[in-house]
Write a sequence for this structure.
């Protein structure tokens, strides 16, 4: 089994899948598809942790994988979908730049990450490519936060960044102590809930979830 | 003997189109025409008289022959069942793409030549799509070319490629989009309808009839099967024989036909489950495929697999 994982480069495939879902999020117009992309991204993340746990035989990584799956893969997507339905905004209307352009730019971001990590940092073993991919996911999440108008897509961008950070930490340390991971997850769950409520409130106060409208608060 | 392998593509290509049509009809709960229907269509068209508009120039009369012969020339350099190809020295990936490009150029000219509105529309759309598809297709082909160390198709198909590495998987999915766009299938173009305002490929053929139309249609079938063959040669090369004895050729022919059937099945599934896109949304689909191809190249260069 371990041989098969090595031969079929399963770890590379799963991590490329994580990268692809992050890029696909940039090409999507419907908010619910963005949430779906995030859910798939989290499933792949937890699958990656489970595979690495199997490869190096660490028991507490299985728990990390399970907790990741439950919180990021199930609870947060369901909550986000509820928020999207409640706001009655199904489409991202006019993002600042077109979807084709943001796809291209995220491709360029990946190229920049690959090129800048080519030499200098030496990471070997399982995580040789995972580190590059995690940094690319962080940048793509940040890019989505910069270029989107809707409050909810900014939350999704933040969540993608968090997934990337988690992956980066995981690829360098093979899992932080359990208590830290739990703390981070709990923080994020709270953050998402607060941001979700916030988005709904913005929608109520301004009759739109467009963040540009917030500038009319200026005196 | 193996030098005649390109005849397989030329003879069987209408059959492949018939199979795709039949599969699609079955998936959509219709009976559909028999799988031999494209042959009947072609023979009927070859028998019919031609009507050539008197305002057309020599371009219209030359175009069907150029389109047909350039497509056939491209099939001659592709390994189908055996690695012994007649023109192995020019079996170059870039050459194949641009030999097909020659045919497309003349097809677009032929669409413009008669001066009808639909022909011009079809030509301008075809060229717009081609501009977007060509770089993406080349990038998708460069990944296997780099891993083989050569753009010669025989070297690319002769290597022990692992399809399951991330870079090849990404390149294959980008190439699949390229095939869909090149063969005019849903979501890019609808192959089943004439006289719709959305047509691309059919628009250019509107002024042709009889033998000319038969040649153009046949060239289109050949091009479709040629692209399937390229895909299976490059991305699942297992089964291509390099020895000349009859038994191994028969076996590899069987494997080849299975692989082409698989591609046809894939096309039928994609066509039945997708809706046609609006023309102005195409850049977003093709741009997405371009990013896939770019990522595939990047991850090959950086990851080494």
């Amino acid at each position: 089994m371990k041989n098969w994982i090595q031969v079929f480069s399963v770890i590379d495939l799963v991590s490329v899948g994580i990268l692809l879902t992050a890029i696909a999020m940039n090409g999507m117009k419907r908010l619910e598809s963005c949430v779906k992309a995030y859910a798939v991204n989290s499933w792949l993340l937890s699958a990656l942790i489970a595979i690495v746990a199997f490869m190096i035989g660490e028991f507490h990584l299985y728990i990390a994988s399970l907790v990741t799956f439950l919180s990021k893969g199930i609870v947060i997507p369901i909550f986000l979908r509820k928020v999207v339905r409640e706001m009655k905004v199904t489409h991202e209307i006019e993002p600042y730049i077109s979807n084709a352009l943001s796809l291209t730019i995220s491709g360029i971001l990946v190229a920049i990450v690959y090129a800048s990590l080519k030499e200098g940092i030496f990471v070997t073993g399982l995580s040789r490519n995972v580190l590059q991919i995690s940094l690319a996911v962080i940048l793509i999440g940040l890019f989505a936060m910069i270029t989107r108008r809707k409050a909810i897509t900014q939350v999704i961008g933040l969540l993608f960044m968090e997934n990337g950070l988690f992956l980066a930490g995981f690829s360098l340390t093979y899992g932080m102590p359990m208590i830290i991971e739990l703390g981070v997850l709990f923080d994020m769950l709270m953050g998402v809930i607060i941001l979700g409520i916030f988005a709904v409130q913005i929608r109520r106060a301004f009759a739109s979830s467009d963040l540009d409208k917030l500038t009319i608060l200026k005196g | 003997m193996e030098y005649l392998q390109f005849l397989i593509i030329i003879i069987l290509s209408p059959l492949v189109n018939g199979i795709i049509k039949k599969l699609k009809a079955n998936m959509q709960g219709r009976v559909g025409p028999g799988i031999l229907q494209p042959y009947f269509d072609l023979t009927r068209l070859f028998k019919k008289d031609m009507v050539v508009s008197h305002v057309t120039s020599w371009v219209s009369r030359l175009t069907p022959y150029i389109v047909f012969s350039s497509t056939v020339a491209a099939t001659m350099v592709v390994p189908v069942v055996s690695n012994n190809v007649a023109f192995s020295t020019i079996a170059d990936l870039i050459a194949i793409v641009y030999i097909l490009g020659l045919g497309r150029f003349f097809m677009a000219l032929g669409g413009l030549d008669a001066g009808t509105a639909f022909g011009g529309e079809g030509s301008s759309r075809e060229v717009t799509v081609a501009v977007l598809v060509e770089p993406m297709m080349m990038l998708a082909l460069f990944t296997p070319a780099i891993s083989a160390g050569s753009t010669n198709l025989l070297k690319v198909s002769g290597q022990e490629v692992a399809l399951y590495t991330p870079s090849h998987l990404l390149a294959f999915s980008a190439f699949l989009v390229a095939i869909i766009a090149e063969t005019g299938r849903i979501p890019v173009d609808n192959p089943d309808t004439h006289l719709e305002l959305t047509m691309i490929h059919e628009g250019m053929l509107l002024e042709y009839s009889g033998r000319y139309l038969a040649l153009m249609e046949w060239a289109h079938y050949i091009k479709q099967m040629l692209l399937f063959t390229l895909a299976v040669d490059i991305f699942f090369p297992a089964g291509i024989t390099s020895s000349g004895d009859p038994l191994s050729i028969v076996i590899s022919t069987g494997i080849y036909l299975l692989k082409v059937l698989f591609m046809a099945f894939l096309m039928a599934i994609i066509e039945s489950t997708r809706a046609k896109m609006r023309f102005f949304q195409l850049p977003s689909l093709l741009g997405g495929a371009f990013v896939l191809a770019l990522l595939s190249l990047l991850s090959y260069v950086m990851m080494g697999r």
